[in-house]
Design brief:
Length: 79
Amino acid sequence: MIPTMIVFGLVLGRWWKSALVASAVVWPALLVASGTMGLSANLLGGALLGVLNAAVGVTAHQGILRVVRRIRRDPHPVG
């Protein structure tokens, strides 16, 4: 289920702040809804791991966005 949050970050990486906040809510909700975890103190650790996984996707999205913008700005670099 870890790739779920990485893809979440990739898709919503343009709005990285909102994506990270949403992942802190969505991931624990998925864990509780699927029966993987109950409501306990460990759920906070699960939320943190969800945010970290989403951050990986957001970082990839932002990196790709930066490369695309650089190519669009200067399609034929000299030197």
